[in-house]
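Take a sample.
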Amino acid sequence: MANSAFHRRLRRAAAAFVAVALAATPVAAAPGPGPQPYYGVPIPAPRFLDPFAPAPTPPRIVQACDGSEPIFGGILGASAGGLLAAVLSERHGRVDPGATVFGVITGAMIGATLAASHCPPNPAD
């Protein structure tokens, strides 16, 4: 019995000590070191997350022509025109050579014109 009374008094004293200790400490916690700086590489957000961002201006593409465009286009056009004319002029297993020559010449002219059409007329432009 004496043992339980001693324990009861000990618990009351401990509770009183904790109450006094809590009352003596300030309510606000002491300020800490604060947020640490971020030294990592920032990850850019994708453009679709900001629909109101201004659209970037596309870079101006300068197309330089070195003079080989009409030659290359003429070769491709001549081969395509010659094959097309040979297939269309075939009669009974024979090909009309006049139509094939006409297809080669016409295809070369069209191919050279189309290949050189994107070049500026003056290199300073």
User: Anything to note?
Assistant: The two ends are 110 Å apart (CA to CA). DSSP finds three helices and no strands in the chain. The helical segments are 2-24, 69-88, 97-116.
